Amino acid sequence: MDLVYSPMAKCIAAPFPCFTHRPLAGFSRVSVSPKYANARRLWRMCSASSSDTLVDGSLKEGRKSLEVASKKEDEYADLKSWMHENGLPPCRVVVKDRPSHNAKHLPIHYVAASEDLQAGDIAFSVPDSLVVTLERVLGNETIAELLTTNKLSELACLALYLMYEKKQGKKSFWYPYIRELDRQRARGQLAVESPLLWSDAELDYLTGSPTKAEVLERAEGIKREYNELDTVWFMAGSLFQQYPYDIPTEAFPFEIFKQAFVAVQSCVVHLQKVSLARRFALVPLGPPLLSYCSNCKAMLAAVDGAVQLVVDRSYSAGDPIVVWCGPQPNSKLLINYGFVDEENSYDRLMVEAALNTEDPQYQDKRLAAQRNGKLSVQAFQVCVGKEREAVLEMLPYLRLGYVSDPSEMETVLSSQGPICPVSPCMERAVLDQLSDYFKARLACYPTTLSEDEALLVDADLDPKKRVATQLVRLEKKILNACLETTVNFINQLPDHSVSPCPAPFAPTLK
Question: In its keyword annotation, does this UniProt entry include S-adenosyl-L-methionine (predicted)?
Answer without folding.
Answer: yes
